[in-house]
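USER:
I wish I could look at a protein chain and see how it folds. I am handing you a single protein, as its sequence and its fold in token form. As I understand it, each token names a local backbone shape. I hope you can help me see how the letters and the tokens relate. The protein I mean follows directly.
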Amino acid sequence: MGAELFYVLVGAVAVGGFARWRGWPAPLLVTGVALAVSLLPFVPEIEIDGHLLLNLALPPLLYSAALDASFMSFRRSLPHIRRLGVGLVLVTAVVVGVVAWLIMPQLTFAGALLLGAIVGPPDAVSAAAIGRKLGLPRRVMNVMSGESLINDATSLTLVRVFAAIVAGATVTVWQGLWEFVVAVVVGVGVGLIAGLLLHLLRMISSDTVLSAAFGLLMPFAAYALAEHLLGSGVLAVVAMGLYVGYHAPKTNYSTRQHDKPIWQSVDFLLESFVFAYIGLQLPTVLDEIAGSHSSVVIWLALAVFAAVLIIRPLFVFASYSWGQALQRLRLLRFKHAAEERRKHPDGRYARAWEERKSRMRARNGGAEPTKEAIKRRVLEPALSRRERVVISWAGMRGVVTLAMAAALPDLTGGEMPLGNVEVIIAVAFVVTVGTLLLQGLTLPSLIRGLGVSADAERATDAREVERVRKISRDAGLDFLRERQEAWVREHGEGARDHFNKFSRGLLRIQRDTDRTEREAETTELEIVEAERASRRDAKAKARRAAFDEFDELSRGWIEVRRRVLMSECRAGNVSEEVMRDLFVAMDAEELALDTRVRFRDE
């Protein structure tokens, strides 16, 4: 079995690598190729324990997605995410359960609801890959990825409740709600504690290998501990990932640079294997139920497949209209408070407003939130009709549906009739593969046909970048003025020209901050030039201006810009995604400095 799994992994990675090279959606190609390979007569049957798949694949995939997510965008899109991640899963479970029970009553109503809970949560892996390639707006990507982070927790909780009922336990509605509340509170609590511990380690340790090793282990630990305490392992991993990702700008730049390729590789390996397993298992599952129930199961699978396709767009549009109605009420209160502040500058609304802004400034390092930033905190992102259509069609099922279906015998304690287990597994596999192939293959054409793009968002990003560059440039100039006087006092008036020349180089670097490679070259060349200028200068004190002092000045310049950028981001004046992009450029500058120092020491 070990050799077979190794061959599956190698083949999946090879096919996925080919898809990436050609620019095709890797999950779809891997699933399709695996399905074709499974039909070959000499290919053996491969069985994997569902619990093993759930516990090994889910934590790192969820943690990586949360780590890469923007916490601020997640918080802002939370109304959309909550409706889809909780409400849509509940509605899907109930509707699919009723449909399945009407078509096949021998499943029992609890078993039918169990099937609905299993096929309820979409997987954003393939949808996100398509969206990134075609340049979907971030507000759309945030909703899809955020939904996938929390809908798994909702689905797993429902599966536990319905599986317990199937196994013979008596569970009331209040007990089910209580179990959900416990799962949320314990899961989020464990995740935040784990995230805090991992962040502290990343802050105090300069060993990137050690930090990465603990980063790979902690998702499994948080997931297992939360599950042991009857919490949601999914929410624990998501909370930990969001916490670590939000505080990542405070860590050493080398830690950030080291993490990204590691998690990208882990994601690619796990996703390739899981989607290959989906394709390989489908014919086997269909063969198992090809007996007495074959015609009924076919109708059941088609009905459930149609139900999950129809429910999502209906719910997306209906829930969005409900959310907009609530938002209009919120906006009216916001406008009323603003009008009261204008009429009564010393009234309670004005005092509350100033207190709120003061708290925000204190949290954001003194940065003043703009009116637009404050509005963004109050109102959820608006989605156009075309964007809602895209979200409605991005409902592909994936690893969670597959793993929960494979784990059914253990989840129900063996109390569910074997034929019913096979039926549910077969339907879950059909829905998973069907949505992957149908929606996954047509989603790119739908996005292009609707003309959904991020052009307006890129223009907003450009304005934000220009604004934050000006602010960071002004802060950097203040820093350079302070250092110039200290420099002249230490090295004499003759060193002023060298300091100014080096400072002009730093300012040129900041103007090109979006061109990472050029920044790295310019930083290194300016240090070399300044060092040579220092050696050529005839004045004794200027000659004593060592390379280390220029290096320290460069690092101080980078740190000032980082602090300004973080403050503006925390204030909501610049998006977290833009901040991360600019941090990549600054990290490259610091890497160039470290490289220069290392070569000089050698």
